[in-house]
Structures are given as structure tokens and as C-alpha cells.
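Sorry, explain these C-alpha cells?

***
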Amino acid sequence: MPESPGDEQDQNPPSGVEDGAEGTDPGASAIPYRHHRRRWRIVRWVALGLGLVLVGASVTVWLGYRKLNHNIHTDTTTEKLLGPPALRPTVAPVAYNAENILIIGSDSRDGANSAYGDPNGTARSDTTILLHLSQDRKSAVAMSIPRDAMVQIPACQLADGSRTKAQFAQFNWAFEFGGTACTIRTLENLTKIRIDHFMVVDFNGFKNMVNAVGGVQVCLAKPVNDPDSHLVLPAGRQTINGNQALGFVRARETIGDGSDTERIGRQQQFLSSLVQKVESNGVLFNPTKLYPLLDAATSAITVDPGLNTVGKLYDLATSLKDLPSDKLVLLTAPREPYVNDSNRDQFQQPEADQLFARIRNDEPVQVSGATDGSASASPSASASASPSTSPSASASASQASAAGVQGRATGSASASAAPSSATPGPTFTGRTANQDICASS
């Protein structure tokens, strides 16, 4: 049976030389064709290999992202317990785009945390920091609240429908009495600063975060031997691991004068050192270093629904990409010994109200003890040192805040406006995140 023209073409592919032409080599015409087919087979295998690699990478990223999201604990109860926005502080228009995040270090001894104290003890806020992010995200203030400060704790609603009684007590008792919601309500009543988000951090997660970055440098004037926190360290500059870091930020009786105020200063020193380590070690730009840190961090926190995914936390972090460490100010709310008990604190006035007003209105906060002699966290530009504002100036700032919009009304033309002029303010005792850990603060 004669072959079809198509069969003949398949068996004898064209060689590019006309039939009957002199010098034609029938065997040679098949060589380019075989080479051509071989090249395409190689291309196909390479493409398939790359495809598998990309699919594998995508699956790995997806699984990693899913795991990180699963790590995060979400607290949906606190927002309900805080009640309607009308019962909470108003927000000044000039501070509309600023963010206030309350960070609570719980001293619960449940589960894995039982190794760090009495497992039968009740949970209190061992560390409380109000993190204020300026509206342009180019400066920030981390204000520590003394746990021993005597304050008015309001009556707080609990998840079971009951209410606690209002009482005058130590600030950290608010967390014991009514959890995160009662802590927020107490702080909002005290400072008139609206809290936008919150994070509760536990001990084990903190330890794992320190290990994830390879340890953090600290500086000690004297050797430390604290049996309660299992902390034994020599004097001087040194790098400590997670377990040691936990003891370092929690130890009280065996370091310095044993006061909570000094411990807060030590915590601020540690946080600034941690920021420097993350920046200098290239953690944020190295996936192999970043993922363990994210895994530890997300496993350590309980947050409100506004921060309960990796995507939301990433958006918050990327909004701070232009924040230099010398514009991150760490300080303690001005305090002094409580008049009726020197072992307790009270807020020093008018300095405390002046600081609260400046944060409330997204104004510069100056601190002494920075590497250049002075530093400030400001929504626009650094402010130079100046005399303290008068009580009347503080009152004016409070009135400006009270005149602000209720909550965070959207679409306001004034919401995104920066302050027309930075009001000169007092200089508070504190440090900036770029300050050397062995420098006095």
C-alpha cells in the first residue's frame, strides 16, 4: 500500500536542499532534526523542574504562612467588655492616623511558664508598655507604666457578666481583677489616651524570640546571682540567651536597688538592644533568620482582631520601615514614691500629665540620656531641648484632645493634617533605641 504524503514527510523531514540537487547527503538531513528534538526535550525537562521547584516553594510558603497565622491567639472578648466607643477617650484630629498599642507582659505561671515562679499565683501584668506610633510612622514612643503605681481602678465588666468593684490599688492589679479589658480601661481613664490595639506576651514566647535572633547584648555594672530567676551573670557587656534574658528583665531584688523603677529601666535597655540586634543582624531581610523569629513571636502573643493575622502584623511592620532607631524613644511615665507607702509609686505631677498630653496629641517627646545629648520622637521633626511647659499648657492640650472627634471618624479633612507647629515641651528621663547599652540613661 503506497504511503501517504504525510507519512513520507514524517519519515523524510526536509533538509533545506531541493531534491536532485548535487551534494545531497540523505543521512545528514536527519542530524539537525534529531538535535532540534533533543534541545526541546531538555527545555521541557528544565521547565518541568522549575515548575516543580516553584510549586514546592509556593506550598512551603503557604504552609509557613498558615502555621504562623495558626500560632496567633485572638482575644475577641476584650473589645466587647470595653463597651461602646462613646465611653472611651476621644481622639484629637491631629492624632487621627497615629496608633496606640498596649503591650502587656503577663506574669501568669500556667503551663510551661510554671518554671518561672509560683504556679499557684494569679496572673498580673508584670510589664505594661504603651507603644505610640506617630501618624507619619517616622517616630515612636514606648512608655512603660510602673506596676506598683497606685491608681484608681474602675469597676470592670467580666466575661461571665459580673462586675468588679472600683478601688484604689496597684496598677498591675487591674489585670488580675479584670484581665486585658480592665487594664485598658484603667489606663485610658488615667491618661485619656485611646488604645487602638493590644498584645499580651507570655514568658516562653519571649525567651524563644531572644533565641531566634541569636541572643541579645546586655551590660551589667556588677555580677548577678539571682536564685529565684536562675540568673548568674558576670559584670560587663555580654550576650545572653533566652533563659538568661527572661531572668534579666524580671529580676528585681538582686539587681541594683531592688526597685520596680530600676527594673523597668533595665527592660528598656534590653528592648533597645533587641532592636539593634534585629537591625544589625539582617534579620528582617533574611528568610532563614526571619521565620524562626516570626514563629516565636506569633506563638507568644494574644492580640485583638485588628492584629490577628500575619498579613495585618506585616502591614504594621512595613509601615515602620522608615522609623530610625534614634527616633524610637523608651521612657517610664514620671513617678515618685507614693506618699503613704514609699514601697509603692504615684505619678509625678504635672510631668506625667504633660507626657500623656503630648502622646495624646502626637507631639514630640524629648528624652535625656541619648547618644547625642538629647533626642525626641516627633510626628514631623526633632524638637530641641526647652524648659518645661506650664500646667496651663498641659491643660490646654487636654482641652484640645477633648474637643476632638469621638472615636475615629473617617473622611475628615483634618484627620490627616499634621500639627501646625510643634509645641516646645519638657525633657523626660529616658533613652533612644540606638543608644549604647552601657551608656547611662
Remarks:
- The chain has a mean pLDDT of 75.
- Residues 30-71 form the longest helix (42 residues).
- DSSP finds eleven helices and 18 strands in the chain.
- The CA atoms of residues 122 and 383 lie 43 Å apart.
